[in-house]
Amino acid sequence: MDPHALLLFLGVDVLLVCTPGPDWLHIAARGLGQGRRAALTAVTGVCAGYAVHTLLSAAGLAAALRAVPALLPALRLAGAGYLVLLAAGMLLALRRGGTGRAVTAAGGPQPTRTVLRQSLLTALLNPKGLLLYLSLVPQFVTPDGSLPVGGQVAVLGALNVLCCAAVYSAVALGAARLGGRLGSTPAAARRLSAVSAVLLLAVAGVTAAA
């Protein structure tokens, strides 16, 4: 691929990733309410979701979504609904008297695999990620390039995943540090869990309106 095109894509992609959106809010909610480990696990899940987007786009999913425009709004609403369920579970746990910074809908510690699964689904259903592969990536793909189209999509998608990993890790660590300072008591931890639930509802709203 043309190195100049790669650098241009990287510059545009970094700007997009650095713009706060659903991924930022989701990861910040994990960091504030559940600490550094959960936040970094969320980053891993989100990046894994975008890696799946890359593979599917390289296989032709982007073309399929362009051919059937109704699929994108359906995925957007599904993602928003999933986030509302997560937030509702957190609020119900607080109402039942759950305390501490790692709270699940059942009121116990949240396993790493649960955070990973939820973050993966959040990324897969995030319309911002889908739109990246539908609108931005095709602009940097050349049919007569040295790599086949699928290979070019895979390279550009891998660059996006790396950008997400770097930027979102910084967001995760910053949110976890802030949460650690503010949530040193059970009462403060409950308030942070409530803030985390509100952030997830905000993510749902942004996702539904995207």
UniProtKB/TrEMBL annotation:
Name the keywords, alphabetized: Cell membrane, Membrane, Transmembrane, Transmembrane helix
Q: Where in the cell is it found?
A: Cell membrane
State what protein this is by name: LysE family translocator
Kindly name one Pfam family recorded for this protein: LysE
Q: What is its main location?
A: membrane
Report the PANTHER family cross-referenced here. ARGININE EXPORTER PROTEIN ARGO, ARGININE EXPORTER PROTEIN ARGO-RELATED
Stretches assigned to coiled coil:
none
Show the InterPro entries listed in the entry.
Answer: LeuE-type
Q: Which organism is it from?
A: Kitasatospora phosalacinea
Membrane topology value: Multi-pass membrane protein
UniProt keyword annotation of Cytoplasm present: no
TM stretches of this protein: 6-27, 39-65, 71-94, 120-141, 153-176, 188-209
